[in-house]
Structure formats: C-alpha cells, structure tokens
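So, can you check these tokens?
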Amino acid sequence: MKQILILQVVVLFAVSALSVAVAGKSGFWSALVGGLTYLIPSSIAVLLLKLVKNRPYAQSRVFIFGEVLKVVLSLVLMLVVFAVWHESLVFFPFFFGLLGVSHLVFLYYLRVKDYGR
C-alpha cells in the first residue's frame, strides 16, 4: 500500500510538471489539486488499514469502509474545489491529475509489473 501511495505522488508531480508546460501556473495548481482530491482519501484508507493490521476479522470490513470513504471523500473534495476555485480552475489539468493518480498507477501494476510472465 505504501508503494502505491509513493507511485501516486510521483505520477502526480509528473502530471503537474507536464501541466505547467502546457497550461502555465494555473494548470500546475489545477493538476496538483486534482490529484490531491484522490490522494488524500487514499492515504486515509491506507491509514485505516494499517490501524487494523493485526485484526484479520476487522480488515475486510475496514477495507470496504475505506473504499466507500475514499469515493465519498473524493467527491466531497472535488465539490469543495469546484465551489471555491471555479473561476481560475483549468479543467483538463485537474482531470488529468485526478486520472493519473487514480488509474494510471493501477494500470502500471496490472500491465507493466507482470509483463512477460
């Protein structure tokens, strides 16, 4: 889990660096905030799983609760970002920051890590 969070941070900074080249300073901040709307709930879910690491019975319930919490917190954070920052937010860098953190990491682990086995 810790490796996934580290890879998500690396992908987030890569997407943010690419966004600053394409959309400028506001693109950088939009991509960074877009990725953080998924990275913060993911970090909370990992923390919850670490808290119940020694209790196998609770792990399955905390895993499901963590996934639901991750989706709900991501949506709430996106709504807050859109409500507060709607005038200067650049949507495509925001979306690519969110997409990079949420999906590209899993594609890496599904395809690249096991490629050739």
Observations:
- The two ends are 22 Å apart (CA to CA).
- The helical segments are 2-51, 56-85, 91-112.
- The chain has a mean pLDDT of 87.
